[in-house]
Specification:
The protein is of the alpha/beta class and about 80 residues long. Helices cover about 20% and strands about 15% of the residues.
């Protein structure tokens, strides 16, 4: 499962289309934990990795163990987003 911590404006301006992506802005993450399956791998990304790293720390603090963040996030993504 992929999960992103991108702001709504970022998602609207450059969407990342993938059926596995659940967009949860970082400021909503704590209140939306129930949307995530702690049994599955979660890869977090944002625009540059700062929020993705923060989201990883939040999820680990809530007991999620199989969590990673995509280093460099979308700014380092080598493929077109559309």
């Amino acid at each position: 499962m992929l999960q992103c911590a991108r702001a709504r404006g970022e998602v609207e301006s450059s969407p990342f289309e993938d059926r596995r992506v659940v967009n949860i802005p970082i400021d909503e993450l704590r209140s939306r934990l129930q949307e995530l399956n702690s049994e599955k791998e979660i890869v977090i990304f944002c625009q540059t990795s700062v929020r993705a790293y923060d989201a990883e720390r939040i999820l680990r603090g809530f007991g999620f163990e199989n969590v990673k963040f995509l280093d460099g996030s979308l700014s380092a993504w080598p493929y077109a987003l559309d």
